[in-house]
Amino acid sequence: MKHKRSVFFVFLAVLLVFTFAFTACKPKEAVVEEEAVEEVEEAEFVGKMVEAPDCDYGGKIKSIVAVDAYTVEFTMCKPDPAFPTKAAFTPFGIYAEEWLMANANEANQETLLSAPVGTGPFVLDNWARGESVTFKAYDGYWGDKPAYDTLVFRWATEGAQRLLELQSGTVDQITNLSPDDYATVQDDDSLTFLPVANPNVLYLAMTNTFAPFDDVKVRQAIAMGVDRQRIVENFYAEGSVVPSHFTPCSLPNGCVGEPWYEFDAAAAKALLADAGYPDGFETTIYYRDVFRGYLPEPGLVAVEFQTQLRDNLGIEAEVIVMESGQFIDESTQGNLDGLYLLGWGADYPHVTNFLDFHFAASNPQYGDPHPEIYEVLEQASQIGDPAEAEALYIEANNAIKELVPCVPIANGASASAALNTLENAHFRPFGAPLMAKVDPGKDTFVYMQNAEPISLYCADETDGESLAPCQQVVETLLAYAIDSGNVVPELATGCTANADSTVWTCALREGVTFHDGSTFDANDVIVSWAAGIDAANENHIGNTGAFEYYSYLFDGLMNVEE
């Protein structure tokens, strides 16, 4: 009896097992179970947001919302048809939420500035201060992985030194050839000459909160009293030109309106006398010793300005060279009492990149901003059709000429160079080379630029030597193509606007991971943008704390304390 009962229970157990197995394999119920799992996963995502109380603060962005795990919605206070070209720019890069929240504070600021965690094809390996920055290819990269393992950034101030290192093979590509070295590279079969089609401008700037630059007649006299043609002919590469307007003419509406003042030393001297300075005055010319396409010989050009101001206007100017980071900080904050040499290379292909950055209401660079300029620019930036916006840009360009916040000096022709063993060596019109697209034919690619990065947290940087290495580590929602500068997908598969460009909805790429192993989603976008655009955000800390691109390109930061 005991044995039969045991057999019965064994049979019953086997029957239950087969019944469970058959039930679990039924297709309809399997779908239901899968849908339930998806519902649980979706319920677990809690989207974040950042917003301004209202639009009275004057900025463009009202709110940024994580609609779901892979959708972010930007609601604007006013139309912004240039949003995609801005969103592709490096300072608007996306960082890992956990990393940013852990390090965007005074206690961990050094990590924030020197060890970024992004989604890019390279991950930071080591920053040997004063020597080099080394990156390793990221094995978990979502896109096409680099053909080599190690990327090294080095730097040298002098163009001759950079070329010598390229010729000796210790580096594989260099930036900013000296104009005198163009023929040398072009005649060397072992090297590749790479023209750089980046629109740029060098300008001589003044801050109107310091006398005598608070007098528009003094500023106009300097504009007329500088022989810009002589500077371009003596210090710039072939193909460089004297600008007719602040913005280079290759950008739509860059050169509409009245052209700049012609050189007239006598008229300039008379205007200076009319301002009360018949014998000139004493001042200072500040610059940083960093080679740029818009300023290939900083020291020589500074001395040329010193000579012209003395000979043409009786102005005695002391030339002072400053450390690069200090110079950028002091000049852009409007703290330099004197003249200074600064310039701009285009970050994205739109006139707002030049005009809205430099002449915005929130920019203290030239002292008190001019409503005759910024109010018109704010209107123009809301218009997507260049033909429709032209009348406003004429008005803005004419106001810049009349008020002379600065003097546009040169649009510089520039070039890079590489070993001819590099496949796909390039230099983009907008942004640094995409190092992951280059194949050096070996395990290590060494790139030499003009100066050391100031920091690697580029949400709060404007310096090109910082932005270039950042672009290899941190990615943006959109990006610029290698050849044309057109906007292409990156962390977003696309961003689409409503009818009047007041709402931009970005669909995010799935399956992307950060260098720390965390999964990319919409909250990473919110936290990264909030750190820059919201002055009251707990993560609003960086190198300078100015977050200049967030402020100027979107007409101001949210929640700024009065």
What would you say this structure looks like, in words?
The protein is of the alpha+beta class and 562 residues long. The protein has three domains: 58-119 and 474-562, Dipeptide-binding Protein, domain 1 (Alpha-Beta Complex); 120-196 and 411-455, D-Maltodextrin-Binding Protein, domain 2, CATH 3.40.190; 200-410, Dipeptide-binding Protein, domain 3. The chain is built from 18 helices and 19 strands. The chain has helices at 2-24, 27-44, 83-87, 97-103, 109-114, 159-168, 182-186, 216-225, 228-235, 265-274, 298-313, 324-332, 352-359, 371-380, 386-403, 464-473, 522-533, 548-553, and strands at 49-51, 61-68, 71-76, 122-128, 132-137, 150-155, 173-174, 191-196, 200-206, 282-288, 316-322, 339-345, 406-410, 414-419, 444-449, 478-480, 487-489, 492-497, 503-508. The N and C termini lie far apart (92 Å).
